[in-house]
UniProtKB/TrEMBL annotation:
The lineage of its organism: Eukaryota, Metazoa, Ecdysozoa, Nematoda, Chromadorea. This is IBR domain-containing protein. Residues 237-261 are annotated as: Disordered. It comes from Caenorhabditis brenneri (Nematode worm). It comes from the Eukaryota. Residues 617-675 form the IBR domain. PANTHER family: IBR DOMAIN-CONTAINING PROTEIN (PTHR31063:SF4), PROTEIN CBG08668 (PTHR31063).
Length: 918
């Protein structure tokens, strides 16, 4: 507000005359000075001296600035080159995982949003097919919201590299100083990314200018973070810019805010409930964002003056910001690993016994582990009920069920598992319907574990599908209902033995030492207390929300109450920052046992492994730590290879459960090839190997089919007239994709042919499983059908194909392996052989023949000695198979020694070459 004009000279003379008259008047009459002073105080304005005398107008400016300078707000918006419909906006909002609505101002000081609202988390919450950016702006108004586009001082955009793993991205940041610049100055086409802006620098560096990228057509999700500038002088008078008032004051736009409203900091509420109706409505009705509108194909007007040299000082950061690079992305880990965290209040109408009696009966089960958390609250470890008998035993806790008795026949049931759930069966309503009719707690647990056991098999099938086809990521399949319904759990997958140690080589791997899970948990536990402090239904002492007794914990020696939501936020904040171990200071006998009541079990197990790894390294251990992808066991690997391997560099790892993998890429073992070479080799080798065993003689298309019987996968080279499933013998005519019984002549009388077509055996009169008259009308719809043009498959030398194909045939032959092992056991019982060596020798020899041949082909390395050793190794392998059929101990020993010598010679030659290349 500008100061008033100075009075004119004539008015000054009149005022002086009036002043002299007042003095003469006072000299003639006596006046009560005290009464006169009171009258002056009554009618005088409280602001004191006139504004034009230099006194600051707003005495509360400094106080107001101090009260709002540390307050931060966030607003999510979407920008697009074309107008977006309401349905498109809803779909974009549903695809984000930030919990924010569009065009709603949220305070980062409420609900602890500042803990998770960093650049990495915000950009990671958006899908990869949409552009995302975080825009930091100076808040110029008293309430902390700025509508000026000239207040931007940082823009962070997400750059997705398709060569990286799904979910990984880079952050490109452009920053400014001072009180901000216009948002358009940070755009790629007008800043450092621009060809015009970089012309001078490229000339100095001697670089060639790159072609300017066209703007992306995908919508852009912007996270606008508003924060008042810490300097009061930079903000200036903009903090006191008048805003539109209520509807009753719309004819008085010049009326400012009452500063007394901001004197009490506690009276200013920043929650989104207050901003959702007022702020969004005022923005939509009173402000027009011209940047979001586009009129035709506008051509940007060229600048008349050249850019200043000072503008080249703004740097583009090509990597993740240093202050957030150390943070762990918990949500990304949960998506990659999968989990189930379902909770519901269930009313059991059919139960007769009380919960105490039922828990005592469940404690007699040897496969269940039951712990008392609080009075009327029990944690039941059902991991052993969620795995098949005779299968691989899980090394960690996979499923727990927490039961809390609320009142009468009402219970709160929490299912926390590392095994993902069907996307259509999520939510409390499904869990309530699933177990509400159970006659006992045992029956309810049986229903839950039975479904988890089915989900476990489906999840394993999804992982094999991803490794074979790679069309979708694991997290995408977990949210795809069709992938869950299209169950192929009993299918004979061609890659189901890729990671088996017997198909690779234990001798070429670093076998880890498995650690007992209970020992790791004992290391993580803090000093136990005698009992657990508990409370009844109350309000949380931190967020003040009403909670049930099972959602509240006493902390700080029973001086404060915290709910599970607040404790979860605190736990995530400490874990993301790697401040280990984490102590929530809850008044519990064992805090680690209470974590599964509000933390997903996948994160709890991850936390236990991290803390145990930290403890072991602090004690001086030099091993490396990992988790077995199959049995979930915690493994410690020696930093130096074992003496028996005699190889300097070992990249293959094996678990005692029989699972092997590469420590760098987690794929199947592929030493001596590097991970990038193996990825290139695998892409063309698997398709070429499928062509070697495909049906038909076509030369145009390779068809990979998963039959409708869900038991067999086979390959067909098109064009071809017919194809048949090797398992169910179902015949299909390729051009019409219709099933039929037989495509050749039926050599029987018409009456017998009619009986067979109708589905009856004319000799026995019974059903023989053959379709009826409509068999020729059934259309074949395979579960998976992938077509690949043969011309697009990279070629491989025929000699390499023959050697690698023959080695792979015997390498993954499970029946041959079982027969050889069984024959070896018979010879050991007859004292013909002493120890078991056959399985490892057969796996190592076939592994070396295939992978070393591929390694020489990919690296263009040719060694006649290595090739001759590989050929002789195959001959020694065949000779050992023949000698095992007899019972000549000397011949068997000689064959075993000869094969071992051949393997060692190949290993030494390859290791010497790889060491020289390294």
């Amino acid at each position: 507000m500008s100061p008033p004009l100075e009075p004119s000279s004539s008015k000054q003379e009149d005022m002086e005359t009036m002043s002299n008259y007042a003095e003469s008047y006072l000299s003639d009459y006596e006046v009560d000075q005290e009464k006169l002073q009171n009258e002056k105080m009554l009618f005088e304005k409280p602001r004191g001296e006139r504004r034009w005398l230099g006194k600051e107008h707003h005495r509360g400016k400094e106080r107001l600035h101090n009260s709002v300078k540390d307050r931060t707000f966030i607003e999510k918006t979407v920008k697009a080159t074309e107008p977006l419909s309401k349905n498109a906006t809803k779909k974009i909002n549903a695809s984000t995982r930030d919990g924010l609505e569009f065009n709603v101002v949220y305070s980062l000081d409420k609900k602890n949003r500042w803990k998770t609202a960093d650049t990495i988390s915000l950009l990671g919450a958006t899908p990869e097919n949409l552009n995302a950016e975080v825009v930091e702006k100076n808040a110029l108004e008293a309430c902390g919201i700025a509508h000026s586009e000239k207040s931007t001082f940082a823009v962070h955009s997400k750059q997705v590299n398709m060569d990286q793993e799904p979910g990984e991205f880079e952050v490109r940041s452009a920053t400014s100083s001072g009180n901000g610049q216009h948002y358009s100055n940070f755009l790629p086409q007008t800043r450092e990314f621009s060809k015009k802006a970089n012309a001078r620098m490229m000339t100095i560096r001697g670089e060639e200018p790159t072609q300017q990228m066209s703007p992306a057509s995908q919508p852009t999700i912007s996270y606008n973070i508003y924060k008042a500038h810490p300097s009061q002088e930079v903000v200036g008078s903009q903090m006191f810019k008048s805003k539109p008032m209520s509807k009753s004051a719309r004819h008085r736009p010049g009326k400012g805010e009452d500063l007394a409203f901001y004197e009490d900091e506690n009276d200013f509420d920043y929650d989104e409930e207050d901003f959702e109706d007022e702020t969004s409505q005022s923005q939509s009705e009173n402000f027009l964002d011209l940047a979001s509108l586009s009129v035709g194909n506008r051509v940007k007007q060229e600048r008349k003056s050249k850019r200043k040299d000072s503008e080249l000082t703004y740097e583009i950061v090509e990597a993740v910001e240093p202050e957030f690079s150390y943070l762990l992305n918990i949500q990304e880990y949960l998506r990659d690993e999968g989990y189930m965290f379902e909770q519901a209040d269930v009313t059991f109408h059919n139960q007769k016994d009380n919960i105490e009696h039922q828990i005592k009966e469940l404690q007699q089960e040897s496969k269940l582990v039951i712990k008392d958390l609080k009075p009327r609250q029990y944690l039941i470890d059902v991991s052993k009920w969620c795995q098949l008998d005779g299968g691989v035993v899980d090394g960690e806790t996979t499923t727990v069920i927490v039961i809390s008795h609320i009142k009468k026949n009402i219970y709160n049931v929490l299912v926390n598992s590392t095994i993902a759930n069907h996307p259509s069966k999520k939510g409390s309503e499904y869990l309530r319907k699933q177990i509400s009719s159970a006659m006992s707690i045992r029956e309810a647990i049986t229903r839950i574990t039975s479904e988890i056991l089915i989900n476990r098999k489906i999840v394993e099938t999804m992982k094999m599908y991803i490794k074979l086809f790679g069309k979708k990521t694991f997290s995408e399949l977990l949210h795809d209902c069709n992938a869950w319904e299209n169950q192929m759990v009993n299918m004979n997958w061609p890659n189901q033995h890729y990671h088996a140690t017997w198909a690779n080589s234990e001798e070429l791997s670093n076998v880890g030492t498995e650690q007992e899970w209970n020992d790791l948990c004992a290391m993580v536990k803090k000093e136990p207390q005698l009992k657990t402090g508990y409370t009844s239904d109350d309000n949380c002492g931190l967020c003040s929300k009403p909670k049930k007794f099972h959602e509240l914990f006493l902390v700080d020696n029973e001086s404060k109450i915290k709910c599970t939501e607040c404790l979860r936020d605190e736990f995530y904040r400490e874990l993301r920052a790697r401040r280990l171990p984490i102590d929530l200071q809850t008044d519990t006998a064992d805090e680690l046992e209470c974590l599964p009541t509000f933390i997903p079990l996948t994160v709890v197990n991850w936390y236990i492994r991290m803390v145990s790894e930290t403890i072991f390294k602090d004690l001086g251990a030099s091993e490396s730590f990992a988790k077995c992808p199959s049995c979930k066991s915690a493994l410690f690997f020696d930093g130096t290879p074992a003496e028996k391997t005699k190889i300097k560099i070992i990249q293959n790892r094996s678990c005692p459960c029989g699972y092997s993998w590469c420590k760098h890429c987690d794929k199947e073992p592929h030493w001596p090839m590097k991970c990038n070479d193996y990825a290139e080799w695998e892409e063309k080798w698997l398709l070429r190997y499928s062509m070697m065993h495909a049906q038909g003689s076509g030369t145009e298309t390779l068809l990979q089919v998963a039959c409708t019987c869900a038991k067999q996968m086979y390959n067909v080279l098109l064009p071809e007239e017919f194809m048949a499933c090797p398992r169910c013998k179902l015949n299909v005519k390729v051009d019409t994709m219709q099933t039929f019984w037989k495509h050749h002549y039926f050599p029987f009388a018409p009456v017998f042919r009619k009986l067979v077509v109708d589905g009856h055996n004319p000799f026995t009169g019974g059903w023989n499983g053959i379709p009826g008259d409509n068999y020729h009308e059934v259309r074949y719809a395979p579960r998976v059908a992938v077509c690949t043009d043969v011309v697009k498959i990279p070629p491989i030398k025929a000699s390499v194909m023959d050697i690698c194909g023959a080695a792979r045939d015997v390498r993954f032959d499970l029946h041959f392996r079982n027969r050889a092992v069984q024959r070896e056991h018979i010879l050991i019982r007859k004292k013909v052989m002493e120890t078991e060596v056959v399985e490892n020798l057969f796996g190592t020899s076939a592994y070396l023949v295939e992978l070393v041949t591929a390694w020489m082909y990919m690296t263009n390395y040719s060694d006649k000695n290595v090739k001759s050793n590989l050929e002789s190794m195959l001959e020694d392998r065949r000779a050992l198979v023949k000698t095992l059929e007899g019972e000549d101990s000397a011949a068997i020993t000689e064959s075993v020694k000869k094969l071992i010598d051949g393997i060692e010679s190949v290993k030494r030659a390859v290791d010497k070459k790889t060491s020289n290349l390294a």
